[in-house]
Design brief:
The chain is an alpha+beta fold and 462 residues long. The chain is built from 16 helices and 19 strands. It has a 4-stranded mixed sheet, with helices on both faces. Strands 3-9-6 form a 3-stranded antiparallel sheet. Strand 17 and strand 18 form a beta hairpin. The radius of gyration is 25 Å and the shape is globular. It starts with 5 loop residues before the first helix and ends in a 5-residue tail after the last helix. The protein binds a DNA duplex (12 and 12 nucleotides) through strand 10, strand 11, strand 15 and strand 16.
Length: 462
DNA sequence: GCATGATCATGC
DNA sequence: GCATGATCATGC
């Protein structure tokens, strides 16, 4: 069957909306339980009637359209989200560096995509899942500027002989995700003798979530920039230039300048300052298009006069059931640090607290940061392994006097563990406990990045 | 002064 | 009610 126009193609695609894969699958491909990528193949073979291939060219070559069948899910709070990243073509490290973006394997194959979204549901067999909607997708101009920059970052790393250090956190929308049967799927790379994991270009899960919400639910994200600006500057440089006029001002002065009520203890105060100085006052940071698509999370850092953070940086409370039931490769904490970019918003105090309890923080600058692969695979992995070991062998939990009360002590990793990360309790009050998978009961715990580690990241801050 | 456990305050 | 960012308090 030949589709002469994209309109014809889309008409055919839309015929599948609302149908389950079982209904579409005329060759009974799905009865063969083990074929991975099977749902996409059902669409290729049964709906569009063409042979499966792994061609470098788009699936519908004459229309320049690549077909992608991809799942979304509903979160507990009812919001739609992509179920996974969208994996595109495999990167040939030896060849990709010889291209420009315009001649790249990514652009040749994926510049126009027919995205067929299906709804993933827990505990439902895949053949019973249904196609929800089909979208003919081309990249919006400003997204494309960010993706071009991402592609440059990836190819530069390959060219520098660092393909084995690629991480999805390096880039904003376009990632280089690992793709292969296992860690043994290694490939040669230029300018280094180290073999690197096979990787594919991918659109990050956060980017796909934004697409799902836009096309399936008509959610509106608010952009902080324009494609014109992105043609001249990277997203990071744009952020730096938006923040730089406020350098050296106190939080109070900034709030006055921006017409934001000064509520330094309010949890929404810093987010409101950020959205205001980005020119989109009141927009929740998660609804800022660029932050949402690139999975950028902000963190406030307050530095003491000596340049060290006032406190270590806390993250989520630990879900010990999850922590002990996952392989390291699929672990929550590993995924978090690989896939999250952090926007550090840095303030400094000019006086010590004991000299002035009402001291003001002054804005010092920002830093976009993601954790280096070596840190994730060494120090963070050590933490993950040590917690697992302690839960398997039993955590030492003791109660000792402290002032007039008893205090709970444990032997989870402390600040001297490995210089990067440690574990500390975090509950609402003395009663805020969790039960560990081994049955022990302990105050809720949280993982932290050491203040000294954070300080070392900010050394080059101008 | 720092490490570490404890808990407050806010916002959903 | 709870998660989370923020910050306190004691003892070494």
């Amino acid at each position: 069957m030949e589709y002469l126009t994209t309109t014809q193609l889309m008409k055919k695609a839309q015929k599948a909306e609302g149908k389950s894969f079982k209904e579409i699958d005329i060759t009974n491909r799905l009865s063969n339980k083990n074929s991975k990528g099977g749902l996409g193949q059902v669409i290729e073979e049964s709906l569009f009637g063409y042979k499966i291939n792994s061609n470098a060219k788009p699936d519908f070559e004459h229309l320049n359209v690549e077909l992608k069948v991809t799942p979304f899910k509903r979160n507990k709070n009812g919001k739609l989200a992509a179920k996974e990243r969208l994996v595109l073509n495999i990167i040939n490290y030896m060849e990709e560096i010889n291209y420009t973006f315009e001649t790249s394997s990514f652009w040749k194959k994926n510049q126009q995509m027919l995205l067929m979204f299906y709804e993933w549901l827990p505990y439902v067999n895949r053949e019973d899942l249904k196609v929800f909607k089909s979208v003919l997708f081309t990249f919006p101009e400003s997204d494309l500027e960010i993706i071009k920059h991402d592609w440059e970052i990836i190819t530069k790393k390959i060219r520098d002989g660092k393909a084995h250090e690629l991480s999805e956190g390096d880039t904003n929308y376009l990632g280089a995700c690992s793709k292969g049967a296992n860690k043994q799927s290694l490939r040669f790379q230029p300018n280094s003798t180290t073999l690197a994991m096979q990787r594919a270009f991918s659109l990050k899960q956060s980017y796909m979530t934004a697409l799902v919400r836009k096309h399936l639910k008509k959610d509106n994200l608010v952009s902080l920039t324009t494609s014109g600006e992105l043609k001249k500057k990277s997203l990071e440089d744009i952020l730096i230039s938006r923040f730089s006029p406020y350098k050296g001002l106190s939080a109070k002065q900034i709030s006055e300048n921006l017409g934001v009520a000064y509520k330094p203890t309010g949890k929404s105060f810093i987010p409101l300052l950020i959205s205001s100085l980005l020119g989109i006052k009141g927009t929740k940071l998660e609804n800022i298009e660029e932050f949402s698509k690139a999975n950028i999370q902000f963190k406030t850092i307050r530095l003491e006069p000596n340049g060290k953070p006032e406190q270590s940086m806390s993250f989520k409370n630990i879900d010990f059931q999850l922590w002990t039931n996952e392989e390291w490769e699929n672990s929550y904490i590993r995924k978090t640090f690989y896939e999250t970019k952090f926007l550090f918003v840095i303030f400094e105090f000019k006086e010590k607290k004991k000299d002035n309890p009402n001291r003001e923080p002054y804005f010092k600058g920002i830093k976009l940061w993601n954790m280096p692969v070596t840190t994730i695979e060494n120090e963070i992995k050590q933490l993950w392994e040590e917690v697992n070991r302690l839960i398997a062998t039993g955590v030492q939990i003791e109660y000792k006097p402290y002032g007039k009360k008893l205090r709970e002590y444990n032997n989870f990793p402390k600040k001297n563990f490995n210089g990067v990360t440690h574990i500390r309790p975090k509950g609402q009050n003395g009663e805020d406990k969790v039960t560990l998978p081994n049955g022990q009961v302990i105050t809720k715990q949280c993982y932290w990045l050491n203040d000294t580690y954070i300080a070392s990241l900010l050394k080059d801050l101008n």
